[in-house]
What we know:
Blueprint: E1 2-7, H1 10-20, E2 27-32, E3 42-43, H2 51-60, E4 65-68, H3 71-75, H4 78-84, E5 88-90, H5 94-101, H6 103-112, E6 120-123, H7 126-136, E7 140-144, E8 153-156, H8 159-171, E9 182-186, E10 191-200, E11 204-212, E12 215-217, E13 221-224, E14 229-232, H9 239-259, E15 265-275, E16 278-285, H10 292-299, H11 304-313, E17 327-335, E18 347-350, E19 360-364, E20 367-369, E21 375-377, E22 381-389, H12 392-403, E23 406-407, E24 411-412, H13 419-423
Bound molecules: adenosine monophosphate and glycine (GLY).
Amino acid sequence: MRVLVIGNGGREHALCWAIAGSPLVTRLWCAPGNAGIAEEAECVALASDDISGLISFVKENAVEFVVIGPEATLVAGLGDNLQDIGVKYFGPNQAAANLEGSKGFMKDFCARHNIPTAAYGRFKDAASARNFANSLGAPIVVKADGLAAGKGVVIADTIKEANSAIEEMLEQGLFGKAGSEIIIEEFLQGEEASFFALCDGKTALPLASAQDHKRVGEGDTGPNTGGMGAYSPAPIVSEKIAIRIMSEIIEPTMKGMASEGTPFKGILYAGLMINEGGAKLLEYNVRFGDPECQALMMRLKSDILPALIASHDGVLDGFDLRWYEEAAMIVVMAAKGYPRSYKGGSVIKMAYPSAHYDNVKIFHAGTLRNGNGDLVANGGRVLGVAAMGDDIAAAHKNAYQALDDIEWPEGFFRRDIGWRVIKN
Ligand code: AMP
Ligand code: GLY
């Protein structure tokens, strides 16, 4: 099978790595890829939002299966374009990707199908938004409706903060069109976790749970990032909670999307708040998380490609995926300054290639090779060091040992990934 993966992050490196190991693959491309992906796949110089360029490439190269990594490409409807030319792909079509593409759509959908989530209102007008925020009281959450690269959520500790977020989004156009409508919602207490299910429009196959660290600084402080590290499984997602997540959240979503004529295929990634009362949905993502995907791919024992194809073909019922019992952790190395401004081009020296380690894999996110063949930083999140271990603490030890073999003075990483679990 001739396969094309879309994207250039650590998530896509992990997907390419897993797919490259499938005996079904005859040729593997990645658009646009990165320096690490170049070791698993042929990189194609096409941006992940260049829909017409990607469609031409697929036609010219007789690509048979396309795996779409980033949400923006899904929300832009690459799937629908592939459908039109009769090429199979992994991920939701544009209508189903709305579960991530519009938080207002997602909230209304949950209300229609009794899926537990925070109380909310949708607003285009700042005065009504302020009134609603006032009536709900602080702390309170203000969210841009559309995709805002993980920056569109403000947790306001006071009504004053909520009012300035409302003003920035609705009146100053901070997020452009993505923030021309906002959601204001109740602040939920508890512990956050992520839950992943592979869906084929009718059936949802639970994959695994994970937890990530969104804040840039140790102790979970500082501004939000795309994710500074993650581990799987998440101990808070007990077997009992996992069963409830499937029956109260994932399955009603599958049924609801199908009954509304927009069946969901691909990865349903539920961001959850868990407390004594059970789990409530914070948000849906319609793709693998980055860096959670890297941890999941470390733990996956089965060939991933047949599972991705089964998701497209609607034949996941009875499908069986095998996982390693061990835990996995990934620690992200980012360029100093991230998530604010940072410089590219600094040289990264690795004492050993990934293959040197038994239970470690180094995934690239923002990297490229310069004219001398050196590995250089080319982004905010640059590398991820993923490791397996008998438990989270062992995976943590293995990941940090390998991190010490990487010399990159212009980069940084958090020393405390997994602290919540390791502390216990
Ligand atoms: P999102 O971009 O929707 O994942 O939101 C970013 C982060 O904001 C989440 O990971 C949570 O930590 C937090 N968050 C979002 N919605 C709520 C809520 N209703 N209550 C508490 N925290 C929230
Ligand atoms: N790690 C969070 C995300 O991929 O959205």
